[in-house]
Design a protein that fits this description.
The chain is an alpha/beta fold. The protein has twelve helices and eight strands. It has one domain (4-245): TIM Barrel, CATH 3.20.20.70.
């Protein structure tokens, strides 16, 4: 059985002092041994959040990283820096990075490989726009993303990473894919992994759903056989995140 993983993506929110306060507020609300809980936080919050979460069940993730080890890359953060600071997960290829910062699949492939090399677990994001869904090319598009982003990555490493399906049209809009739509795509991603690698790898990889996940829809979404948790945006900054993490209680 794949253990559920529920990650909060804080995006560009929370000063360091606010982040520590939120960790304290959520501490007792996110206790659930059945679920891996991750806070993916802005770079400036990583060290205080790691310290604030010591002794809890919550792991820390970063929202991005660069693929070079060090050098003249002003403003970037390396995988080794994240690892040394206590980070265990890193989001790669979020639609906002792809869209606003023009990160392409060739770049993301380098990031995935470097994260794995450094001992970080990538949370690799994929998803379609509303236009692509209406054109009927959702799975074609996502399969292309997955195949490109995982090119040259070994099956053993893929089995341990996390893939987050985020329909772009549902991020921050209040719209949510229906449970059937989310399950269909997550199942399609698993089938794609089986095609590229093998069935065992496909059965091992954890696939999250992201896109306006909230306390009201979490239990229904996470009950699906191919949805192994959620990548949660705005709702991860509120006490309600505890209800999402404890969806099964």
């Amino acid at each position: 059985m794949r253990k559920k993983i529920i990650a909060g993506n804080w995006k560009m929110n929370m000063t360091p002092s606010q982040a520590v306060a939120l960790c304290a507020e959520l501490k007792d609300l996110v206790k659930n041994d059945d679920v891996d809980v991750v806070y993916c936080v802005p770079a400036i919050d990583i060290v205080p959040v790691v310290n604030a979460l010591k002794g809890t069940n919550v792991k820390v993730g970063a929202e991005n990283m660069y693929f070079e080890e060090k050098g003249a890359f002003t403003g970037e953060i390396s995988a080794a820096m994240l690892k040394d600071a206590g980070v265990e997960y890193v989001i790669i290829g979020h639609s906002e990075r792809r869209d606003y910062f023009k990160e392409d699949d060739a770049l993301l492939n380098k990031k995935v490989k470097k994260a794995i090399e450094a001992g970080l677990t990538p949370i690799l994001c994929c998803g379609e726009t509303l236009e692509q869904r209406e054109m009927g090319i959702t799975m074609d598009w996502i399969r292309m993303q997955i195949k490109s982003d995982l090119a040259g990555v070994a099956a053993a490493d893929v089995a341990k990473l996390v893939i987050a399906y985020e329909p772009i049209w549902a991020i921050g809009t209040g719209k949510t894919a229906t449970t059937a739509q989310a399950e269909e795509v997550c199942g399609g991603i698993r089938a794609c992994i089986a095609e590229i690698y093998d069935q065992a790898t496909a059965e091992a990889v954890r696939i999250q759903y992201g896109g306006s996940v909230n306390a009201g829809n979490a239990a229904e979404l996470f009950a699906e056989k191919d949805i192994d948790g959620g990548l949660v945006g705005g709702a991860s900054l509120k006490a309600d995140f505890g209800k999402i993490v404890c969806y099964n209680k």
